[in-house]
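tool=predict chain=A
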Amino acid sequence: MALDTAVDRGNALLGSLHPDDAQLIAADLQRHVVGGGEILLDPTRPLDHVFFPETAVIGLRTATATGRMMQVGLVGREGMVGWWALLGNDMPDHGAVALLQGGTVLSIPTTRLRAACRASPTLLADLLRCMGQFVEQLSDTIVSTACDPAERRLARWLLMLHDRIDGDEIAIKHSELGVLLNLRRATITDCLHILEGERALRCTRGHIAIRDRAILEAFARDKSAKPRGGR
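tool=predict ok
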């Protein structure tokens, strides 16, 4: 994880804070460049920093009974990762890893964020909004996993990734999508062919272009996808 002093790229949650609350934590925020696959939170290690993604997309994951890591949700510029610290937890409930090609995140030491939230109940309330949003996303994911065929599950995750990036090109491999959905690579390939046939996507090696989001949304019947203008 490398420190980056580039211009502000923006996190919507931080941008929505009252100026007085934002000022409480501004001096303690540091920007980092993270690589794809970089682990930000490990459930076996203390939760010493909270992260606010800017251009990075963070996958939250948990271990199955066999020890395999499975993605359970995504967080991008709309939220934060590590909100358990604000509930008094010293260990994260999920692992967190940077997806795609990485990007930038803002980090703050847990101790400093807790101190700021003790000083301002409105700051705590505003930051915890993201926890409710994630719970809603998680419930939708559970329903989709239980009820939807693989191609609809894939369409839903592609929409969620699309919500959190600039442009229409998603740099991701079939094998990485397989990890996200806990599906075989061959199944992912078959599902992508179906979505290409619907003219929703255009796939090349290591990249997926969203060709027609409206078609993808209709195919997925995805209640969690948001209009891109609302990000």
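The longest strand covers residues 69-75. The two ends are 26 Å apart (CA to CA).
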